[in-house]
Specification:
Pfam families: Glyco_hydro_20 (PF00728). The protein is α/β, with parallel strands linked by helices and 728 residues long. Among the domains are: 127-182, no CATH class; 188-503, Alpha-Beta Barrel (TIM Barrel), CATH 3.20.20; 550-654. It is 44% helix and 8% strand. The protein is built from 22 helices and twelve strands. An eight-stranded parallel beta sheet has the order 5-4-3-12-11-10-9-8. Strands 1-2 form a two-stranded antiparallel ribbon. Helix 5 (245-258) links the parallel strand 4 (219-223) and strand 5.
């Protein structure tokens, strides 16, 4: 008993500490209970939210319109064979949920989602139709359930719709206004090789042909220019790294083995810089200063053209049915002395007729020409060409009708029984681009299919086909555009589009398979997003098509260029210690120079490493001349700029003593009267002249009023001889 009393007395003396511990434990228990209750409520709330979200998306048969996915550049058609149901994305506001919660929600909603999705998919009619809206509905955006194949409904870009009787913003459209539309597939689907720049090794070129055949190509339009092994008088025009006759024969044999129609393109009017740039042919120029076009009236011209055609035909004549004789962009026409007596249009028609008749009568081939020089011709002016040539209409912009309106199609159809068309997969949206903008090329190709379907009935023989051009230089003197391996993803997308007549998820599966892409099915089936991935650099990062390493190199160079430009902008523009003024005056803070140059070594090492890897990567597909030219144009300028800014920084840091301010005015500004002291005599003369001018009466002074409100003040212009005869 005594022992118990002793313990109780000790506890009583520590009653404050004990009571505090009990209070803390009570508070902790209450907090844990409240937290568990809230967690359960949140889970239930998310459960309900996900049920509603999935049910709504399944009923609409499309992703949530408020999500970023609805704004992508390419949207695919639900309900078309090969299309899976779109995966319902986790809403942004709930991306922080735990894995166990997510697994629980997925399991709970799987059955509901599958049943709703199946019902929605069965409800969709698998027919693509094009809605013909009446004038009062023009410009309206498509109803949200209309499935746009590609992009927005702007201009002439084709719109593929499900069979809903709805127009823009949900307005009803009568059945008479809905026209069922089958996919238009051109008979011939050619790819174009422009070999006047970055000519690939022949074994690689044949690999590209094999890939193109798998993707749906039926032929190839090949433009040798100076890469052809000309002989005799024309031997001087061939490039140092021209293909051999044996290599050309390998190409011809490969096309025959693959069943590809081979069409050589021989320049015979414009784009003859590779010949006319030389001294021995300079006298044949249409304009003495410009080597682009040949004088069609000169007595030597046809002899030169015939010789060029004969040499190319000798290596191709047994395997071809067509010859393309160019004739586009003849910027200088009829300027030479022998052509002074004729009109431009008649001179053009006469020369084209002479060349076409030679090809037809001597080599027995059908003749194709580019169409652009004929677009402003009247039908009567084109009559001599009817039945003699087939125009190939090229437009690389998204809106084809803007550059080739309907009335031009009417004129062509009046003269020519048939025609060709041409889109582009690279080399069409800027002479300095390193990677092709795939979205623009796809829009152009889709639009061409729509135009061809609309205009084909005007021609007796319909359209022969379409060529996907891939320009390597804008002309003989331009720098390299996108390399052929870099353009292959764009070529693949466009080829599959013209092969199928559309581009959807089925086509995308063909794309990833043909380009030898690896990855999980989910990654491969993820819809293309050409807005966030305009070059398909992310999609193709795990693909192993021929030349994939060059494609990835170009993307790395593009990213490095942006980083170097950002660094140089920071040094030269954003910061105030290495601008042009500071460098010119050699007047700045060495401490600040060190500070702004901290990232220089990292950028310099990246560029040097890039040049070394570029040499190794490019050498697998190109010769030393192409490797050196591409590196000099794309990487070496970055190296030069980094070296220059480094030298400037070292020069600025070398100085140890600076003169006091203000610095002397720049000598070069004196010609503008800046930095010169004005004498008192000159100042007085100027003031007196102003005083005299102010005293001149103005009879219209009472009519002049100050501009009111936002009125624009008129600019006063003095008479030409004002300073010679001042008013008195």
């Amino acid at each position: 008993m005594v022992l118990v009393s002793s313990y109780l007395s000790r506890l009583w003396r520590r009653k404050t500490a004990i009571l505090g511990a009990l209070a803390g434990a009570t508070i902790l228990i209450i907090c844990l209970q409240v937290r568990g209750q809230k967690k359960t409520e949140n889970l239930d709330h998310r459960d309900v939210h996900y049920n509603n979200k999935i049910l709504l998306a399944a009923r609409k048969n499309e992703p949530d319109l408020s999500s970023p996915e609805s704004k992508r550049g390419v949207r695919f058609i639900p309900g078309v064979p090969g299309h899976d149901q779109p995966q319902i994305k986790i809403p942004v506001e709930h991306r922080s949920i735990q894995d166990d919660e997510l697994a629980y929600l997925q399991k709970r909603n799987k059955q509901l989602f599958e049943s709703e999705a199946k019902a929605a998919k069965a409800k969709m009619n698998q027919v693509r139709v094009k809605t013909k809206l009446d004038p009062k509905m023009q410009g309206l955006q498509p109803f949200q359930e209309d499935n746009v194949e590609y992009g927005q409904s702007v201009g002439q870009v084709p719109i593929y719709r499900e069979q809903f009787e709805r127009g823009g913003h949900g307005q009803m459209i009568s059945k008479e206004e809905i026209k069922l539309k089958e996919a238009y597939i051109p008979r011939q689907r050619l790819i174009h090789f422009d070999l006047k720049g970055a000519p690939p090794k022949m074994d690689y070129l044949i690999k590209v042909l094999e890939l193109a055949r798998k993707l749906g190509a039926t032929g190839v339009l090949i433009e040798y220019e100076d890469m052809f092994p000309f002989e005799g008088r024309l031997e001087a025009v061939r490039a140092k790294n021209h293909y051999t006759r044996g290599q050309i024969q390998d190409l011809v044999d490969a096309c025959e083995r693959l069943g590809l129609e081979l069409i050589p393109l021989i320049q015979t009017f414009g784009h003859l810089e590779f010949i006319l740039k030389l001294e021995q042919f300079a006298h044949l120029r249409d304009s003495a200063e410009m080597p682009e076009s040949i004088c069609p009236c000169h007595h030597e011209t046809m002899f030169l053209i015939k010789e060029s055609i004969d040499q190319v035909m000798n290596l191709h004549k047994k395997h071809i049915n067509y010859v393309h004789i160019g004739c586009d962009e003849v910027y200088h026409l009829g300027e030479c002395e022998p052509c002074q007596s004729g009109s431009r249009n008649s001179i053009f028609v006469n020369h084209v007729s002479a060349v076409a008749k030679y090809v037809r009568d001597i080599h027995h081939k059908r003749v194709i020409i580019w169409d652009d020089m004929l677009r402003n011709f009247m039908p009567i002016e084109m009559e001599p060409l009817g039945g003699l040539v087939e125009p190939m209409v090229w437009v690389y912009a998204e809106d084809v009708y803007r550059f080739m309106p309907t009335y031009n199609w009417d004129r062509f159809a009046e003269i020519f029984p048939t025609a060709w068309t041409a889109s582009a997969f690279k080399g069409a949206h800027g002479p300095t681009l390193m990677m092709p903008p795939i979205q623009k090329h796809l829009e152009n190709t889709l639009n061409w299919l729509d135009v061809m379907q609309s205009e084909e009935s005007k021609f007796k023989g319909g359209f022969q086909g379409i060529v996907l051009t891939g320009w390597q230089r804008y002309d003989h003197f331009a720098i390299l555009a996108e390399l052929l391996p870099v353009g292959l993803p764009s070529l693949a997308v466009d080829l599959l589009t013209v092969k199928n007549g559309f581009f959807n998820a089925t086509v995308q599966s063909q794309l990833t398979k043909s380009m030898e892409c690896v990855g999980t099915p989910r990654d491969l089936d993820e819809p293309l997003d050409l807005t966030s991935d305009p070059y398909l650099s992310d999609k193709m990062s795990w693909c192993y098509f021929p030349g994939a390493s060059v494609f990835k190199l170009a993307y790395t160079v593009e990213n490095t260029r942006k980083e170097v430009e950002e660094f140089l902008k920071k040094v030269r523009e954003d910061q105030g210690w290495m601008r042009a003024y500071s460098i010119r005056r050699n007047y700045t803070s060495p401490f600040r120079v060190n500070e702004v140059m901290q990232e220089w070594s990292m950028n310099y090492d990246s560029v040097v490493s890039l040049m070394r890897s570029a040499k190794q990567t490019l050498s697998e597909l190109f010769d030393i001349y192409t490797v050196a030219e591409w590196v000099e144009q794309r990487i070496y300028p970055m190296y030069q700029e980094l070296k220059l800014v480094k030298d400037q920084a070292e020069s600025l840091k070398f100085r140890r003593v600076w003169q006091p301010r203000p610095l002397e005015p720049l000598k070069e500004l004196e010609e503008f009267g800046i930095g010169l002291e004005v004498s008192n005599k000159a100042r007085d003369a100027t003031n007196s002249l102003h005083n005299v001018d102010d005293t001149i009466p103005n009879d219209n002074s009472d009519k002049l009023e100050a501009p009111q409100g936002n009125a624009i003040k008129k600019r006063l212009v003095q008479a030409p001889d004002y300073y010679r005869r001042p008013r008195r």
